[in-house]
Amino acid sequence: MSGLIFWLFSIAPPESVIVRDNPNDQGQAVVITWSHPQPKSVLGYRLFRSDEPDKDFAPITSELLTKNDYLDTDSLLRNGKEYYYFVRAYSLSDSADSPVSGPVVPQAQWFNTGRVNVLILTIFISAIFIYYILLARRGKMMFIRKISGLDAIDDALGRATEMGKPILFSFGLGYITDMVVIAALPLLRRIARKAAEYAVRLIVPNSDPIVMTAAQETVKEAYTEAGRPDLYNQDNISFLTSDQFGYAAGVDGIILREKPGAIFWLGYFYAESLIMAETGHTTGAIQLAGTTETTQLPFFVAACDYTMIGEEIYAASCYLKPEPVMLGTIKGEDFIKLVLIVLITAFVLLGTAGAKIPVFERVFTAIVNWFTPPT
Amino acid sequence: MLKRNIPLLIVLFTALLLIVAFFIPHKPFGDLESRFLNWYAIISGFTFLLGLDSLTRHHLLKVIRKEKGWFYSLLLVLSLFATLGLGLYSWVRFASPFALRAPFMWLYKYMIIPLQATMFATLAFFIFSAAYRAFRIRNLGASLLLIAACLVMLGNVPLGSSIWQGISQFIHLIFPKTDPDALKRVELFALIKDWLMAIPQAAAGRGIGIGLALGGIAMSLRIILGIERTYLSS
After folding, report:
1. 3 state SS of B15
2. A203, A212, A314, A320: which to substitute to probe chain B, counting the most B Cβ within 10 Å?
């Protein structure tokens, strides 16, 4: 009787255990796959690993696995070292071990094949940009469309000067590693230069000390360029706090106390954007905003007089200092946009036709898969 | 010359190294990005001293000069050092400033969190005042925006569902052949909201997103090739 019960509840060992190096990594991961002849009677699996084929096996998973594959990314794994694995299957009252598999050697690769698509696109896009830069170097004249947000800078500065009020500039919660902050620095330089020429006070509250240092340097240079280094006051470009709403409260306080005539919101903003911009609006300041954060754009559009949308802030330095080579990159951007419009239209047609014609469906799926990053 | 060219060379070299590292997982390239980020974290940690210096100097000067609102500056400096002191005391006494019984945690729980919540709560009022101005019917674009916003709001709240139940009964009264239960199940406002968010809104968002990505690439290339130098003192 006990033999029958044992037979009923016993479990077969996992089969076809395959261990292989995880591709496209730094040699610190192993992929293990297996199958089981009685999947319904299995509660779960546990994996064991050792660097010896016959001893010192230790479990590498604390909880039971319910899938039949596992990616071992343990930080203890070493590039170029041999490892052995076995899988233990558990039923209600029994467990069974697979034979030991291995050795497997995690190895670092010299090229990430999963990023071939990125490499091809990088080469293609860079080639177009470089072509247009070279074209500009040869003297080809480039045209850039009017960006009203940037044209409004001088109006805003003029108005603040006429009213005898200061100017406020904020990078938001951006760090110096954010592209939009680097893109806003030339705008600060331009604004600081004009502020120095008109002898208007420029206030720049910061949420990051590195951005503050960069802003101080930029403003100082601009004041020197304008021939008014005497007007530069480092205390006007100060640090507030890196806390999101603390920063908003601090900036609101400055707006309400100083009543700036013009406010520039150029950088990286989160939910605090509307709190600050609405406070600016209540004081009657002319406000100009630009951010790459698409979720904050509607807030700025609603609260500010001018808003730079999307890549307009990236084009600012080219627009303000229209050197042919700088404009070349904008032209390159426009050409790639044209290519993308053509490609998107073609893919929409291909995908739509694929619903009726299987060969189009296969081509469409292949293209989508090529663009989809590997998981 | 050196002041301009050496930073440009550092930028070019670092950028090329990171681009190469993106495609090569093998050492020494594979973990370069995380190494650089660690360096940045260490440097930015130290720069907070600059921030502290700027903040205290700015407010202490206001206090010393008795400028307008000097009392608030004094309060800020005192709060800053009280927080720092409590943090250090909690760290020594309770092994962590965020220990449950630590005085710093009390400060965090009963001062900082309510203050943050208050600031965030004001956002609702600001949304209302901004929406009032944005949705005023001035032209065709603003009118479309108003209609779309109303439909999205109705699709998101239970009130929209209740209104649709009433409308569906009204439709059934006019067209008796229609099935009232089937009409109620349609949830028209929710359907319109889903369509608005998934089609026109997503299309506009993607358009801006593509522009941003290309603008970012163009900007990066200008910086890497040394065409864009306005971020340097040159």
Report:
1. helix
2. A314
